[in-house]
């Protein structure tokens, strides 16, 4: 459920035959942040703009992908916390679309560099949360695939999501081809994740030059970016 304004076709640079492009972020060694606007309040919008902006500020972007759903004006749908400031409030309403396929959830990092995924209803006090993005549905819930998913579903799409690995690192994944939600959740499960969250669908883009995968376009709300500490 991306409410996309100004969508443009994209070009991809592909390496290998794997079905997914994935990246593991260790928050003790790498800095994972959620980006939306630059210091002048201008929307970043694309992975290429984020890379250029970080480079201009002396930072090297290792990985980036779109970080949640958005509506007109590239405004985040649901909770968005940036540097401990609540930019957009938690959405506890009901509705149509993937975001509201309950249970949905929140991916967040804390001020002591821990990462977690929880059900929306179980979000802890936000005082110690540094970054957070809300989306839906949850792909994995305590190791189990979301009960609404059907392995035989014909609803296929490019998809991206985030999971937490047993060692506490963050697994960020995008499919290179169209997949169903059940198959996508199964990938996270096989990697050892107990909790994982769907981020978005056909608009998804990933920037990972180390694996020969560079998608610098897009027109997003929140973007997840990883740099070296």
Describe the secondary-structure layout.
Elements: E1 20-25, E2 30-35, H1 47-56, E3 61-66, E4 70-71, E5 75-76, E6 80-82, E7 85-88, E8 105-110, E9 115-119, E10 129-135, E11 138-141, E12 144-145, E13 160-164, E14 170-175, H2 181-190, E15 195-200, E16 206-208, E17 213-214, E18 223-228
Antiparallel strand pairs: 1-14, 2-18, 3-16, 3-18, 4-5, 6-7, 6-10, 8-9, 8-10, 11-12, 11-15, 13-14, 13-15, 16-17
Strand order of the largest sheet: 1-14-13-15-11-12
Report the span from N to C terminus.
33 Å
How many DSSP-defined strands? 18
The main sheet comes to: 6 strands, antiparallel
Structural class, judged by helices and strands?
mainly beta
- What portion of the residues fall into strands of 2 or more residues? 35-45%
User: Quick one: overall form?
Assistant: globular
Q: How many separate domains?
A: 1
Rounded mean pLDDT is: 93
Cα gyration radius (Å): 16 Å
């Amino acid at each position: 459920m991306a409410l996309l304004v100004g969508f443009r076709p994209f070009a991809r640079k592909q390496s290998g035959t794997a079905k997914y492009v994935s990246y593991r972020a260790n928050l003790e060694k790498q800095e994972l942040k959620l980006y939306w606007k630059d210091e002048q309040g201008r929307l970043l919008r694309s992975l290429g703009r984020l890379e250029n902006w970080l480079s201009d500020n002396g930072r090297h972007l290792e990985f980036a992908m779109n970080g949640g759903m958005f509506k007109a004006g590239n405004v985040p749908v649901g909770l968005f916390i940036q540097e401990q400031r609540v930019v957009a409030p938690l959405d506890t309403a009901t509705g149509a679309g993937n975001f509201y396929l309950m249970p949905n959830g929140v991916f967040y990092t804390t001020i002591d560099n821990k990462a977690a995924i929880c059900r929306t209803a179980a979000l802890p006090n936000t005082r110690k949360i540094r970054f957070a993005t809300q989306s839906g549905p949850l792909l994995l819930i305590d190791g189990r695939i979301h009960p609404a998913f059907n392995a035989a579903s014909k609803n296929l799409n490019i998809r991206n999501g985030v999971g937490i690995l047993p060692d506490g690192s963050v697994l960020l994944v995008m499919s290179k081809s169209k997949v169903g939600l059940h198959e996508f959740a199964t990938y996270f499960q096989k990697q050892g994740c107990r909790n994982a969250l769907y981020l978005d669908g056909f608009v998804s883009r990933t920037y990972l030059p180390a694996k020969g995968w560079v998608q610098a376009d897009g027109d997003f709300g929140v973007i997840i970016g990883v740099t070296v500490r």
